[in-house]
Design goal:
Elements: E1 2-7, E2 12-19, E3 23-31, H1 33-37, H2 44-66, E4 75-81, H3 85-102, E5 106-110, H4 111-122, E6 130-135, E7 140-147, E8 150-156, H5 162-172, H6 180-187, H7 212-228, H8 234-260, E9 264-268, H9 275-288, E10 291-293, H10 297-300, H11 305-316
Parallel strand pairs: 1-4, 4-5, 6-9, 9-10
Antiparallel strand pairs: 1-2, 2-3, 6-7, 7-8
Helix pairs in contact: 2-3, 4-11, 5-7, 5-8, 6-8, 8-9
The chain binds 5'-O-[(R)-(carboxyoxy)(hydroxy)phosphoryl]adenosine.
The site of 5'-O-[(R)-(carboxyoxy)(hydroxy)phosphoryl]adenosine has 20 residues, from helix 5 and helix 6.
Length: about 325
């Protein structure tokens, strides 16, 4: 079954053709990073307009690279939530029109379910049940993936997402947007151990996370150095910050494995590309006898192939939509 998939929840327009949920025939991405970098973050209205400009030519390219005619598409999948509402609406509207014109099923896909499904593309042998640690720009959560379309959140952030926190910390350290990779490079220059950063715990919800205090601490340290002229060890701060993020997410994922008895953990989302996060996960999973799946860097960030992968399983479960499908800025993965 060939699925034409669309992703437009934030600042990447992406279109892909995926076969049977596992084989990527084409995966095209038009990034808007350069436009938003001017403003130090995503400007929603600019994102929506850029999606409108990119989506039609990108679809032609995805079909051409897949060697696929429109009539050979069996279903259309699209990210419908969560994300920037204007940006999501571009993908949803385009996907609806395409599905209507081709008279094929329309399959709505939750963005984070898509991130998790990126693992199916990289690891043919992987099947649920497993635990997923999703760490992206807009969401951070630990989910029990009981089967392809049944998931339960075990813990999630109470405030900022891990990626958002990376981007804000990077910004005050004078690094470009998006800040995740520049922070990783800066952190690699130091062994850290200089700054004691706060790590919040949520009373009564040991698997929940919080990043806003950590973010504020980095902002305050940077502003204090600016105002007083005191030196700031930027690379040590980047390293200590990164270790704090690892400390927030990795032990909680391990605890989730202990609580559920699951022996398989999949990482997902943009922050899963971080080398320190990956190394810490490998170390701790190795020690706990947990099989770890880390998607290749190309599948950690936003793409439409992951939407095509999850779309296939949503279709098999009968989760299709009609022309009334709407987009939602927030929606639980469950
Ligand atoms: O998953 P993603 O592409 O988009 C969302 O679905 O949100 O995640 C984007 C986020 C950004 O905040 C970006 O700074 C972060 O992932 N990111 C990283 C790295 N690469 C991307 N964070 C830390 N280290 C990285 N190497």
């Amino acid at each position: 079954m060939r699925i034409l998939a669309f992703e437009s929840s934030c600042d990447e327009t992406a279109v892909a053709v995926v076969e049977d949920g596992r084989r990527v025939l084409s995966s095209e991405i038009a990034s808007q990073v350069e436009v938003h970098a001017l403003y130090g973050g995503v400007v929603p209205e600019i994102a929506s307009r850029a999606h409108i400009e990119a989506i039609a030519p990108l679809t032609e390219r995805a079909l051409a690279h897949a060697g696929c005619r429109r009539e050979e598409i069996d279903a259309v999948a699209v990210t419908y939530a969560p994300g920037l509402i204007g940006a999501l609406l571009v993908g949803v509207s385009f996907a609806k029109a395409f599905a209507f014109a081709l008279d094929v099923p329309l399959v709505p896909v939750h963005h984070i379910r898509g991130h998790i499904a990126a693992n199916y593309l990289a690891f043919p042998e992987l099947e649920p049940p497993f635990l997923a640690l999703a760490v992206s720009g807009g969401n951070t959560l630990i989910a029990d993936v009981a089967d392809y379309t049944r998931m339960k959140i075990l813990g999630s952030t109470r405030d900022d997402a891990a990626g958002e926190c990376f981007d804000k910390a990077a910004r005050v350290l004078g690094l470009p947007y998006p800040g995740g990779k520049p922070m990783e490079d800066l952190a690699s220059q130091s062994a850290g151990g200089v700054y004691a950063l706060p790590l919040a715990h949520v009373d009564g919800a040991p698997l929940d996370m919080s990043f806003s205090g950590l973010k504020t601490a980095v902002v305050n340290l940077a502003h204090h150095a600016d105002q007083t002229g005191e030196p700031l060890d930027r690379s040590a701060l980047a390293r200590d910050f990164t270790e704090a993020v690892c400390e927030m997410v990795v032990p909680r994922a391990m605890e989730a494995a202990k609580q559920t008895g699951r022996k398989v953990l999949c990482a997902a989302g943009g922050v899963a590309a971080n080398r320190f996060v990956r190394e810490r996960l490998m170390r701790e999973c190795g020690g706990a006898g947990i099989k770890l799946y880390l998607p290749p860097l190309s599948l950690c960030g936003d793409n439409a192939a992951m939407i095509g992968a999850q779309g296939y399983y949503e279709y098999l479960a009968g989760h299709t939509a009609g022309m009334e499908l709407n987009a939602y800025a927030t929606r639980e993965i469950e």
